[in-house]
Amino acid sequence: MMQTNHHYGAVIGFLIFIILGAVILGVFVSGAFDPEKQAIINLKNAETDYIRARHAQELAISQAETDAAIANAPAMAGFVRKQKALEIEQQKQDFALTSSIKKWGR
Q1: Cα–Cα dist 88/3, whole Å
Q2: Is this prediction's pTM over 0.90?
Q3: Neighbour count for residue 41 (Cβ, 10 Å)
Q4: What is the full DSSP assignment across 37-78?
Q5: Partner of 47 at 20 to 30 A CA spacing, among 9, 10, 31, 56?
Q6: Distance between CA atoms of residues 26 and 16, nearest Å
């Protein structure tokens, strides 16, 4: 009776040994410890992180510009109205000057 239990233990131990060996061999064969592959993976991860950071920065800048435009909208509207009024006044003065030149030129 004891020999059969001991026999099963040896078989189970041997199977565990084989499975662990296969796993360890698989890790080495897959290149998990290959420095060149790790360097490439690290480079790709760094590039992805950079792209994400750049995208987040662009979004933050865009949001800040939008917020500033919204905050300055009333001031900008007033500025545009003043600019338009100055342009109209300048056109009136130009027309008056042109008219007086034509009048005196006759």
Answers
A1: 111
A2: no
A3: 13
A4: HHHHHHHHHHHHHHHHHHHHHHHHHHHHHHHHHHHHHHHHHH
A5: 31
A6: 15
pLDDT at 49: 92
Q: How far is CA 63 from CA 55, 57, 68, 69, 70, in A?
A: 12, 10, 8, 10, 10
What does the DSSP assignment read for 15-26?
A: HHHHHHHHHHHH
pLDDT, tens digit only, all 106 positions of the chain: 455 556 777 888 889 989 998 888 887 777 667 778 888 888 999 999 999 999 999 999 888 888 887 887 777 777 778 888 888 888 888 888 777 777 766 5
Amino acid 1: pLDDT:
46
First-last CA distance in the chain: 137
Q: Are 33 and 27 in contact (CB under 8 A)?
A: yes
